[in-house]
Amino acid sequence: MKFLKLASLDQVYSEYLRRLQPIGETLEVSTTESLGFVCARNVIASQDLPGFNKSLVDGYAVRSKDTTGASANFPVMLRVVFEVKVGEEPSKAINENEAAWVATGAMLPEGADAVVMVEHTQRFNEYVEVMKPVAIGENVLRTDEDVRKGQLVLAEGERIHPGHLQLLLQLGVERLKVFRRARVGVISTGDEIVEPFVKEKSAVQVRDSNSYGLVGWLKSLGFEASRVGLCKDSEDELFRTLRSCFDEYDVLVVSGGSSIGVRDFTEAAINRLGKPGVLFHGILIQPGKPTVLAIVNDKPVVGLPGNPVSFTISAKFVLIPILRKLENEKDFLFKPSGMVKLTRNVSSRQGREQFVRVKLLVRNGQVWAEPLESETARVFNLVEAHGVIRVPSDVEGLCEGELTEFYSLWSGW
Amino acid sequence: MKFLKLASLDQVYSEYLRRLQPIGETLEVSTTESLGFVCARNVIASQDLPGFNKSLVDGYAVRSKDTTGASANFPVMLRVVFEVKVGEEPSKAINENEAAWVATGAMLPEGADAVVMVEHTQRFNEYVEVMKPVAIGENVLRTDEDVRKGQLVLAEGERIHPGHLQLLLQLGVERLKVFRRARVGVISTGDEIVEPFVKEKSAVQVRDSNSYGLVGWLKSLGFEASRVGLCKDSEDELFRTLRSCFDEYDVLVVSGGSSIGVRDFTEAAINRLGKPGVLFHGILIQPGKPTVLAIVNDKPVVGLPGNPVSFTISAKFVLIPILRKLENEKDFLFKPSGMVKLTRNVSSRQGREQFVRVKLLVRNGQVWAEPLESETARVFNLVEAHGVIRVPSDVEGLCEGELTEFYSLWSGW
Question: pLDDT value at position A1?
């Protein structure tokens, strides 16, 4: 079975990504080392959080009904019978017209159902004047108000972030089952491509930056990525290179030229590897059109355009979702970082969704995006741009001042 | 000299961060390993990029004036005298009424000043019919159009991202001078705090999540962070702990309780360490108010509130800018990820800037932020929230549908 050769990005997501076989292998890691992994088994809270009725302020634990009608002019007088320190279980209960001093985080004693903030009290030896009534539960975090025992706190398919880590540790979850990270191998192809630090090169030879750039980027995102090496524009050489490292990786990426002849031999080399082979050849995006998507023996093989800007856009919007899908992430598609306003009109390219590189500026509390000169052949674009905006293929363009979704390329924006 | 005890976030940035002494130590790294470091010496392009006049398309290199008046009905006929492959230097020039086949990325021969896309031509053996005129420079990237020799391509104080990496490798920059990363030591304090995986604990003891959460988070951002350990609510114990590890780190972070007595002994312990000691005690933000900012022998010591939500907000908006400043990053303040629209009204807390945790949703191409229940004592907040919006202290609130800046907490949004 073969799909259409030229596809929209939506088709890639719905038809290609859906076909990918996620990695089944899991490992068990210490929760403290689990950041960035995708959870492989639902985690259920084994206890309530906070696990006791907790004071949210420094003040006096009281029976709320004892404070009815209290005001600055007519304060209610309560007897302070003991003090509860943080980390201590109160040994006694409070009775009618009694109060206990509680620090922020301390446990409420039996009998108390609210806390009066110290700011609304006046202490006189063993008595306290309460100048404001409190309602039941006021200034208290109930025993199961944060998390309820039995509640799902981390679901299979969620990528673990520092917020999860905090919650899991509060719950005493020591180890987690996670999916192993995807292994990516990157090959740069092109007769003109040379190693970046070669001493002698002719004017027309081009230093390889795509493989190193992508490997560094993917590693900074936590993926396992390695550079396989360079390969000439030769079907045989590419086929042999792919075959030799095929078993080591979950995904093979070929950075390739986008000129007509070159595209064909990339497709041919991939198709020689196995079935079903190339499924999509060309995506209706600009830049990034000459992207090749294949599956060989259940493994994705991805050809990205050789131009560094197209390469990067295609890696962001096609390759990274593939890796997230492989790692079993439920929510594998990228999301906008937010919206921005355009500093000027952007015209569309009919028939292709456009990813326009933009520079952001903050002006009067609004975030503006300045579209960069659209020449995708300029590598400097990747230094100037904070991210991209999308111009759909079915509009004539976007207008100055228009609000549009922004997708950051690197963190920092 | 001591600053005001309670400060706005702006004061913290302008008065405290300005006083910090950035790390002077540099190291030399391979460019391929430089991601995430801050550049310590300007990098100047040693060559033009692309370094030759480069065809942006597959087509015919021509003298543009030979194509004047060409149309589908009246094509111009040119003789194809040779072909230039990618990575090859053309050995000859083209003359009047001649053309050379060039692939995308190939060098233009002498004499040619434009390229006609193959789509606008018809080939007949050694002749080609050009059906559309081209202007000088059309479909060509000039030799220095991407980068000019002598141009600044990476400035001291910029943090290196994958886009820089691509450009530096294209230019053959093999090694870079960078500032070493900041080393952060994290201490959790509190009589109620216990190790997270302790087997036996009473209901009121709280597992330490702040130190592990922060260390994991900072490491995922590339900083060098370690957990120092737990410490009781005791001035002496905290003082001894701080002193024992003081020389190992560039920044010491104390996660502490926020109740009245506890705050005082943290300040006292820090002040015993050295001069000038605590400069700010309390920041006018909610959550995050009980943040302590000190400098001891030129080294920042930061007390963050013990509540995990307040701790995280304060780490994001106070601690991380400090670390970026220490690492010599020019642009050390956080930036909004973009703007969002509010799904409902948010009221402000008079006198304190509020960081309201929000969940994002994309609806009809617009990014909406749903403010989460504001209880900062709920750790689960950190799992639900994608980031925060800021409500300034001098407004009454923000309205449903209002456009406001969004700050992501973790990547993924």
Answer: 41
